[in-house]
């Protein structure tokens, strides 16, 4: 008997466009011999499935089911590929927990914490061999806070929405004159903003997942961008960024990064696949934590897909491991 899997996509933020692209790849790639897959689109006040005939079928939120003709379909589990809110910030996880439906991503608490960049840094900063950049977490866009930034942090700075993704609303500030506009841009996306000192180093992104009861660290991808930083355009426009998988690290760096990201995964109680971004500082080689993404993209060219293929694993088998792990 094949398990019925709800592939949840869409979302309440600008990231829904990427979520739909990820879902299209997962839907095409997932092992149909093992699973019947139903793509569920989640938008504010509009959760639905589109049938083969094009009919829009609403989701019954009382038990997360759909009815096609006379058949009521309930789901054995959820493959969550909804980036941003509500799929990545814990809201969906809490809903599925109440219905006792397993899902492929982190639980409600971990999702909520890791969506907040400042809180995440506070939790992981005492992990051995891991460093975090000096930063301030702001809760209002005020003159007092602007003065606080100038007195406590050194240029250049990264200004980013604390709970955002895909680098939306993010700026690099090189002069104090640029600060007000950057703060306005970030606060337009979020009520909390993180201001971080710039770390000069090589940028990497690495996938970590739990499958068959074991934590696997994938080969890191080195990000070489023609832009000032790995922004939305660099992430999603072809040719702007060179992505090297496996990234150029020596064996000591590979081993150290593996130790650190495994500790991050364990300390945050992660589930499924996550992607951790970090710098290796130019002068010292120190590892600086940037952020963690608990619903990483799954497009054809996404970093996780590249990394899975780099270890000789089929992406289809990777998805199977994520699904089977949620039933354990």
Automatic annotation (TrEMBL):
Mg(2+) 1 binds at residues 277, 291. It holds the Pfam family Dala_Dala_lig_N. Keywords: ATP-binding, Cell shape, Cell wall biogenesis/degradation, Cytoplasm, Ligase, Magnesium, Manganese, Metal-binding, Nucleotide-binding, Peptidoglycan synthesis. Its cofactor is Mg(2+); Mn(2+). GO terms for biological process: cell wall organization; peptidoglycan biosynthetic process; regulation of cell shape. Its EC number is 6.3.2.4. GO terms for cellular component: cytoplasm. InterPro entries: ATP-grasp (IPR011761), ATP_grasp_subdomain_1 (IPR013815), D-Ala_lig_Van_CS (IPR000291), D_ala_D_ala (IPR005905), Dala_Dala_lig_C (IPR011095), Dala_Dala_lig_N (IPR011127), PreATP-grasp_dom_sf (IPR016185). The keyword Ubl conjugation does not apply. This is D-alanine--D-alanine ligase. The gene is ddl.
């Amino acid at each position: 008997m094949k398990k019925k899997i709800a592939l949840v996509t869409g979302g309440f933020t600008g990231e829904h466009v990427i979520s739909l692209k990820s879902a299209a790849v997962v839907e095409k790639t997932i092992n149909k011999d093992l699973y019947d897959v139903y793509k569920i689109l989640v938008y504010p006040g509009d959760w639905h499935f589109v049938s083969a005939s094009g009919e829009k079928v609403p989701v019954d939120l009382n038990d997360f089911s759909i009815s096609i003709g006379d058949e009521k379909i309930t789901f054995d589990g959820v493959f969550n590929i909804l980036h941003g809110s509500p799929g990545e910030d814990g809201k969906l996880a809490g809903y599925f927990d109440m219905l006792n439906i397993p899902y492929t991503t982190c639980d409600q608490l971990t999702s909520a914490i890791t969506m907040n960049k400042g809180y995440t840094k506070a939790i992981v900063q005492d992990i051995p061999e891991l460093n975090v950049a000096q930063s301030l977490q702001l809760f209002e866009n005020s003159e007092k806070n602007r003065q606080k930034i100038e007195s406590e942090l050194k240029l250049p700075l990264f200004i980013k929405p604390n709970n955002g993704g895909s680098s939306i609303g993010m700026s690099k500030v090189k002069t104090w004159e640029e600060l007000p506009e950057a703060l306005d841009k970030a606060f337009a996306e979020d009520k909390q903003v993180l201001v971080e000192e710039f770390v000069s180093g090589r940028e990497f992104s690495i996938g970590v997942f739990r499958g068959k009861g074991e934590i696997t660290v994938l080969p890191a991808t080195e990000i070489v961008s023609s832009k000032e930083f790995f922004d939305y355009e660099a992430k999603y426009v072809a040719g702007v960024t060179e992505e090297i998988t496996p990234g150029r690290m020596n064996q000591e760096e590979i081993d150290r990064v593996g130790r650190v990201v495994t500790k991050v995964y364990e300390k945050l109680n992660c589930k499924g696949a996550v992607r951790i971004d970090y710098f290796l500082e130019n002068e010292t080689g120190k590892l600086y934590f940037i952020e963690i993404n608990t619903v990483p993209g799954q497009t054809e060219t996404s970093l996780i897909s590249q990394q899975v293929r780099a270890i000789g694993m089929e992406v289809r088998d990777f998805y199977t491991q994520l699904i089977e792990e949620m039933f354990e």
